[in-house]
Amino acid sequence: MAFLKDLLHQNPEEENKKPKMKHLVQSPNYYFMDVKCPACYKITIL
């Protein structure tokens, strides 16, 4: 039995076209980053 496409090494362009829940590794398309001000120690979320 032969597969038509390689499931372990998928094309990143095709992977980005799929909905995020259908990706091989389900992860959000965004992330949050905490930035701390060195002077006042205030944390800002970007």
Automatic annotation (TrEMBL):
GO cellular component: ribonucleoprotein complex; ribosome
Keywords carried by this UniProt record: Ribonucleoprotein, Ribosomal protein, Zinc
A biological process from GO: translation
Coiled-coil segments: none
Disordered: annotated segments: 1-20
Keyword Coiled coil among UniProt keywords: no
PANTHER family xrefs: 40S RIBOSOMAL PROTEIN S27
Protein name: 40S ribosomal protein S27
Species in which this protein is naturally found: Gulo gulo
